[in-house]
């Protein structure tokens, strides 16, 4: 009996140490709070896509200002740009000199009956964690990863309803700041997309003017490329 008690004490002590008494819901709560409290941020980004052994790379700088203002300046492919003032989303592709103009105030619902675009919506993270089941990828949380020795919480997410997009995701969350360092998503065809953020600066000085877009006179315009206002 003494052996059994000592064994159980050892197991629970090691379980507690490895798990660090954190739960996935606690981590998600801290992520939501961290991002909702931020007024602005800037970061460098890299995007790697692997599809049937073919790879593509993109990188650049992103800027965000609450509520819903974004700007992605691409260095690769050079000159591409994604800009939104929260009401209109602009997508410029330099190679073909074309601009997509998407109205984000279109009253269009997805298969679950929810609005696709909401100009004054809270962080997309709220919707993300509502639409996915999530859990730790292992009991050891957080754990050191990479050469810098930093510790990360690793969350695996699975889409609650298969409605397209990423069916499965993995998030790597800095255990000190609760910023999402990296995310890996896979769709139902096996395409894998990795997005990594570096040089993250919360509450940086970001001017409103950079979220305005002025189309060049000779650029080809495509209206509502993501979803139209067709009621049918």
What level of helicity do the residues show?
10-25%
Biggest β-sheet: count, sense, barrel? 13 strands, mixed
Name of the top-level CATH class? Mainly Beta
Order of helices and strands: HHEEEEEEHEEEEEEE
Number of domains: 1
Structural class: alpha+beta
User: What is CATH's topology name?
Assistant: outer membrane lipoprotein receptor (LolB), chain A
Number of strands: 13
Q: What is the CATH superfamily? A: Lipoprotein localisation LolA/LolB/LppX
Key attributes of the depicted protein:
outer membrane lipoprotein receptor (LolB), chain A; 13-stranded mixed β-sheet; alpha+beta; 3 helices
What does this structure look like?
- The protein is 17% helix and 41% strand.
- The protein contains three helices and 13 strands.
- The longest helix is centred in the first third of the chain and has 18 residues.
- It is globular, with a radius of gyration of 21 Å.
Give a brief rundown of this model.
The chain is an alpha+beta fold. It has 3 helices and 13 strands; from the N terminus they run H-H-E-E-E-E-E-E-H-E-E-E-E-E-E-E. Strands 1, 2, 3, 4, 5, 6, 7, 8, 9, 10, 11, 12 and 13 form a 13-stranded mixed beta sheet that branches.
């Amino acid at each position: 009996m003494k052996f059994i008690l000592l064994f159980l004490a050892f197991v629970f002590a090691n379980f507690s140490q490895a798990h660090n008494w954190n739960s996935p819901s606690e981590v998600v709560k801290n992520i939501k709070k961290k991002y909702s409290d931020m007024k602005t941020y800037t970061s460098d980004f890299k995007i790697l896509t692997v599809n049937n052994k073919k790879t593509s790379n993109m990188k650049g700088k992103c800027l965000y200002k609450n509520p819903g203002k974004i700007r992605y300046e691409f260095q690769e492919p050079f000159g591409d740009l994604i800009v939104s003032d929260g009401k209109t989303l602009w997508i410029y592709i330099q190679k073909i000199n074309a601009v997509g103009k998407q109205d984000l105030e279109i009253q269009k619902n997805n298969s679950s009956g929810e609005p696709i675009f909401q100009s004054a919506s809270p962080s997309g993270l709220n919707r993300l964690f509502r639409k996915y089941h999530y859990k730790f990828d292992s009991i050891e949380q957080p754990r050191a990863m990479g050469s810098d020795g930093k510790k990360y919480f690793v969350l695996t997410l699975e889409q609650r309803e298969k409605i397209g997009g990423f069916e499965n995701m993995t998030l790597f969350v800095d255990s000190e700041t609760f910023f999402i360092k990296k995310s890996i998503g896979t769709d139902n065809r096996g395409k894998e997309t990795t997005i990594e953020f570096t040089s993250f600066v919360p509450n940086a000085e970001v001017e409103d003017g950079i979220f305005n877009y002025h189309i060049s006179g000779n650029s080809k315009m495509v209206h509502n490329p993501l979803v139209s206002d067709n009621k049918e």
